[in-house]
């Protein structure tokens, strides 16, 4: 590996580009451990401080993962990527990646609306909510943990199994079509209940996507909380200057 040559940019930016290029070219493969900071800085011809700044940014971008006391590893590329401005079902995302979507059905229960449900759906406190928990799989591997809430008046039929998209269920059973959603996304670390179900270790982060879905009449009909494996899914957004 040749060392970094000075140009008009900061050295750490050159290091970032070089390491990304080396990963892209297969010099460092997915899940492979990188050389030590001392050896890598020497190979690139930069100081360890410069290298550390580059590694810090690469870790923020999920290109690498650093494990304390163990080393630095190349992160796995996400299998599924989607523009978050595109409202897609998990089923559609998995199918677009050329994989077979599946479902591990966990439960479908009737709960009385909580205070948060009352605010979200503008419903009464004694109204019933259908709460559905599932694990979505891609080629048999668990990749998303899904919790969906639907007002009982919209989905009066108690479902014992759901093998397809909730969007399709709402259209087929209730004749209600989701047209848009308001989303919030946040990263979290290890979750004691959900991480083991998704075969995630302590080093594997989760992306939590919370969405309120609305129909053509602007009525809230579905609230979902989906836990995505951060090493499998990547979301991006197109931003335009106004």
**Could you give the order of strands across the largest sheet?**
4-5-6-9-8-7
Strand content: 25-35%
The total strand number stands at 10
What level of helicity do the residues show? 25-40%
Termini separation? 44 Å
Q: What structural class is derived from the secondary structure elements? A: alpha+beta
**Biggest β-sheet description:** 6 strands, antiparallel
Helices, by number, come to 7
The value of Rg in angstroms is 22 Å
Poorly predicted runs are none
The mean pLDDT is 86
Descriptive labels:
10 strands, two-stranded antiparallel ribbon, alpha+beta, six-stranded antiparallel sheet
Walkthrough of the structure:
- The strands form three sheets. Strands 4-5-6-9-8-7 form a six-stranded antiparallel sheet.
- With 242 residues, the protein is an alpha+beta fold.
- The mean pLDDT is 86.
- Helix 1 packs across helix 3 and helix 2 (37-44) packs across helix 3.
- 26% of the residues lie in helices and 33% in strands.
- It is built from seven helices and ten strands.
Short description:
By secondary structure, this protein is of the alpha+beta class. The chain has helices at residues 11-24, 37-44, 48-60, 90-96, 115-121, 166-174, 194-197; strands at 64-67, 71-74, 80-83, 101-112, 128-138, 141-151, 178-188, 206-215, 220-229, 233-236.
List the helices and strands and how they pair.
Layout: H1 11-24, H2 37-44, H3 48-60, E1 64-67, E2 71-74, E3 80-83, H4 90-96, E4 101-112, H5 115-121, E5 128-138, E6 141-151, H6 166-174, E7 178-188, H7 194-197, E8 206-215, E9 220-229, E10 233-236
Parallel strand pairs: 3-10
Antiparallel strand pairs: 1-2, 4-5, 5-6, 6-9, 7-8, 8-9
Helix pairs in contact: 1-3, 2-3
